[in-house]
Q: What sequence folds into this?
């Protein structure tokens, strides 16, 4: 692990002081020339602030120092990145803290599965998924962090300048912890849990799961598993399981406690295809109140046999 620490204000002050001394020595009293050089120094000073504002204050960038995890004959190595960025070039400015921990295939000829991860919309916002060109896994992680930091400064800096008494509202933490599971031969499940803290009334947590073919990187969809016309019967099964979990009898009763408020029940495409069941994941606040958290509905294959291909 390499730790790099930048103390932005003091560094730039030292540079500016050195430059002033050099200018005064070199110009030998030529005031006009000195003024021009001093304006240049002020410009460079401001430019340095702007550039360094985007550079992390403290960064740990490391490939996890463990043996690769072997899942369905694929070796996965986890890229871990921790980054802190100041909102403004000031010592006491609010900060953005980003923590990413994402496994990628480390084998040769692993482009298909890694491309599926990069473009799989596992991070929020989906900066990586919007990239059209082919990039390395490290570049993908770094580009996400860079864009997230830029958007943080663009969106929050103008607000904070007029709201300095509420500094804590601008302290943001973004975390993504991803993992790999395998329940079926030739398929791995990539699960990413994202949490955004600060700047709001409560943390926002989302879990995103995708089932990927190991040879092609193809994402397994509901249509790959279920027969035509599965939607309504499967929706009814999910509602039944949610009712059982909440110890009520029917849809109207779980709606009274906040489920599917203002929306019709539906089958989510966020699911884990397990060995003997399918688990559907409804993220925090998706179909139930925030205080009820994430909702998971597991349905045994025995109960799905009339709907499976």
A:
């Amino acid at each position: 692990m390499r730790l790099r620490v930048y103390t932005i204000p003091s560094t730039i002050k030292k540079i500016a002081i050195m430059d002033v001394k050099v200018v005064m020595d070199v110009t030998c009293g030529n005031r006009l020339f000195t003024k021009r050089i001093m304006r240049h120094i002020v410009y460079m000073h401001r430019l340095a602030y702007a550039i360094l504002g985007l550079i992390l204050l403290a960064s740990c960038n490391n490939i996890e120092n463990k043996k690769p995890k072997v899942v369905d004959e694929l070796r996965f190595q986890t890229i871990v990145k921790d980054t802190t960025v100041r909102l403004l070039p000031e010592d006491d400015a609010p900060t953005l803290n980003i923590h990413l921990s994402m496994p990628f295939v480390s084998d040769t000829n692993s482009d298909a599965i890694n491309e599926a991860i990069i473009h799989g919309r596992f991070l929020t916002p989906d900066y990586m998924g919007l990239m059209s060109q082919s990039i390395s896994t490290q570049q993908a992680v770094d580009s996400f962090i860079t864009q997230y930091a830029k958007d943080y400064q663009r969106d929050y800096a103008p607000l904070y300048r007029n709201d300095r008494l509420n500094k804590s509202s601008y302290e943001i933490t973004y975390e993504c912890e991803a993992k790999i599971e395998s329940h079926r031969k030739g398929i791995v499940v990539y699960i990413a849990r994202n949490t955004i803290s600060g700047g709001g009334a409560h943390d926002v947590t989302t879990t995103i799961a995708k089932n990927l073919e190991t040879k092609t990187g193809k994402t397994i969809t509901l249509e790959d598993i279920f027969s035509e016309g599965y939607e309504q019967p499967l929706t009814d099964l999910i509602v039944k399981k949610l009712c059982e979990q909440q110890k009520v009898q029917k849809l109207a009763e779980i709606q009274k406690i906040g489920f599917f408020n203002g929306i019709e029940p539906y089958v989510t495409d966020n699911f884990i295809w397990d060995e003997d069941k399918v688990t559907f994941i409804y993220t925090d606040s998706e179909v139930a109140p925030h205080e009820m958290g994430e909702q998971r509905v597991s349905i045994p294959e025995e109960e799905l046999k009339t709907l499976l291909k």
User: Anything to note?
Assistant: The two ends are 48 Å apart (CA to CA). Residues 58-213 form a domain with the Heat Shock Protein 90 fold (CATH 3.30.565.40).
